[in-house]
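Report of the visiting student (M.T.), summer placement. My assignment was to run the structure pipeline on a short list of targets and document each run. The first record concerns Glycerophosphodiester phosphodiesterase.
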Amino acid sequence: MYIIAHRGSSSTAPENTIAAFDLAVQQGADYIELDIQLTMDQHVAVIHDDTVDRTTDGSGPVRNYTLDQLKKLDAGSWFDERYAKERIPTLQEILERYSQRIGILIEIKHPKRQIGIEKAVVDIINRFSYSRHIMVQSFDDTALQRIKADAPSLRTAFIMKPSALKLTKRKLAVYSSFADCLNMKKTMINRWWIDRIHSFGMDVFIWTVKDQKTANRIKKYPIDGVVTDHPPFFQKKK
Ligand code: G3P
Ligand code: CA
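After the run finished, the structure tokens were exported:
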């Protein structure tokens, strides 16, 4: 089971920063998960929200900032003063730093409001040698269909909302045409569904585990990956 550090090791360092991703590597995670947004000048920035307010000292929508302007923001002090030097990374920087060290799960946020983000992501990923260790995920099926059409060997994960609860055979056949993996909310976990998803050739990931009790429960299921803020909950025995 892959341990996937949600926005990096985000319980211990500011999310979606080099500090959080480095920590995930040190803690032995198999993947880092990160979120992307387009800047005003069409660069792909690594930040969860569509505004900078919650995780930086700036304010306003990411799309109103050029990359140079975004890079001036402090992306760490909101979490702890000792992270004041953290900056918002770009997807290119993350792939340069980590693609040979750890898997990377890239979440496309709000693709309907970010025209062209799928192509921008594939163009960046294509600069690197990729395998199953770089994946793209989204809550948006259309975005994943575009990614698959553009880059058939790039692995994809469809993030499932609990409202998508009824996984009929017909739905699973459609999902398997554009997704290699279903990433289910932890409350949806169910042995019968896991087996059914596997029978359609897809992997099963679970998002997002934040406490030890849930971690212990999740470990009992035959899943392929778990997204967690706290990778040490799942540390493999050496
Ligand atoms: O891996 C799924 C998870 O990252 C989706 O939720 O809001 O943390 O991006 P969010
Ligand atoms: Ca995410």
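The helical segments are 18-26, 67-71, 91-98, 117-125, 141-150, 169-178, 191-199, 212-218. The first strand starts at residue 2 and ends at 5. I thank the supervising group for their guidance throughout the placement.
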